[in-house]
Amino acid sequence: MFLLSVLGIWKVYMIEKIKQYFTLSKPEIMLLVIITGATSLVLEGSLLREPLRFLLALVALYLTGGSANALNQYFERERDALMKRTAGRRPLPQKKISHKGALIFSLLMGISGVLIFGFFFNWYSALLSLVTLLFYSFFYTLYLKPTTPQNIVIGGAAGAMAPVGVWVAATGSMSWEPWILFLIIFLWTPPHFWALALFYTDDYRASKLPMMPVIHGERSTLNQIVFYTLILVAASLTLVFSQKVGWVYGAAAAILGFRFIRQSFKARASQTEKDYRRLFFMSIQYLFILFVVIVVEIFI
C-alpha cells in the first residue's frame, strides 16, 4: 500500500511537471500557428495523400514554434514576474520549474523540430524554421521588444512564417499563395496584440516595455489598429485570385473583415476597455474562421 501511494504521488507530480513544461510552448498561441500551417498544407495539397507526413510537418512546426515561445519565456522570466498578466500564469515566475530545466527543454524542442524538417522533408525548410526560431527568440525578445514600440510589427514576421515553412517542407520550393497567408498573419498581428496592450497598459508600463500605448498613447495606437485592419482585409481578399479558393472564401473574408473593421472603429470611438477586449477576442475569431473557411472550401 505504501509503495502504491508513493507511486501515485510520483505520477501526479510528473503529470504536473509535464504540464508546466508544456505550458512553456504557449499552447493557446500554437493552436493558431498549427491551424495556419495546416491550412497552408491543405492549400498546397500534396501531403493530403500522405497523412502521416502531413501530421509530422505539423509536429515539427509545433516543436520549433513552441521552442521559440519557451525561449521567449526563459529570457523574460524576470520581466514576467513584474506583470500581473504573466506573473500568476507562467511557470517560471511562479518557480514551478527551474530556469535551467526550461532552457534545456526549449533547446531540445527546437533542435528536434529543425531535425525533423531536415531529415524527413528538406533542409530548406529546416533552415527557414531555424532562422525563424532564432529571429523570434533572440532578435525580437532580446532586442526589438525592449527597445521599440514597433516591436510587434517587426517581430510579427516570425509568427507569420508557419504557412511558408510548411509549404516549403511539402514542396521544396516557394509559391505566392503561402506568402499571402504570411501577409494576412503579419498584418493581423499588430491589431491583435495592440488591442491586448490597450487593456494591459499598466502591466507593460510596470515592466518598462515600450509598447505602443505606453509610448504613443491610446489614440495613436487605435489609429494604427484601424490602419492595419483596413490593409489586412484588403490583403486577405487577394487570395481569391488563387484557383484553389473562390466565392465562399471571398464572401467570408469580406464579412469577417467588415466585422473586424467595424469593431476597430468602435474601439477608437469609445476608447473603453470593454471594446478593447471585444476587439482582441474578435481578432482571434477572425483569423481562426478565415483559415478554417479556406480548408472547408478546398474540401467541398
Structure description:
- This protein has 300 residues and is mainly α.
- It folds into two domains: 19-169, UbiA prenyltransferase (Tetracycline Repressor, domain 2, Orthogonal Bundle), CATH 1.10.357.140; 175-300.
- Helices cover 82% and strands 0% of the residues.
- The protein contains 14 helices and no strands.
- The protein has helices spanning 2-23, 27-44, 51-75, 77-80, 84-87, 99-120, 123-147, 151-159, 162-171, 176-198, 201-206, 212-237, 247-270, 273-299.
- Helix 3 packs antiparallel against helix 6, helix 3 (51-75) packs parallel to helix 7 and helix 7 runs antiparallel to helix 8 (151-159).
- The longest helix has 27 residues, at 273-299.
- The protein is globular.
- The chain starts with a helix and ends with a helix.
The CATH topology name of the largest domain reads Tetracycline Repressor, domain 2
Summed over residues and divided by their number, the pLDDT gives a mean of 92
Provide the CATH superfamily of the largest domain: UbiA prenyltransferase
Q: Count the DSSP helices.
A: 14
CATH class call of the largest domain: Mainly Alpha
Largest sheet: none
Q: What's the helix-strand series?
A: HHHHHHHHHHHHHH
Annotation, overall tally of beta strands:
0
CATH architecture of the largest domain: Orthogonal Bundle
- Number of domains in the coordinates? 2
Question: Low-confidence segments, ≥5 residues, pLDDT <50?
Answer: none
Helix/strand/pairing category: mainly alpha
Give the termini separation: 57 Å
Q: Using the alpha-carbon principal axes, give the shape.
A: globular
State Rg: 20 Å
Q: Kindly state the percentage of residues in helix.
A: over 70%
| Amount of beta strand | under 5%
Catalytic activity: heme b + (2E,6E)-farnesyl diphosphate + H2O = Fe(II)-heme o + diphosphate
Function: Converts heme B (protoheme IX) to heme O by substitution of the vinyl group on carbon 2 of heme B porphyrin ring with a hydroxyethyl farnesyl side group.
EC number: 2.5.1.141
GO molecular function, one term: protoheme IX farnesyltransferase activity
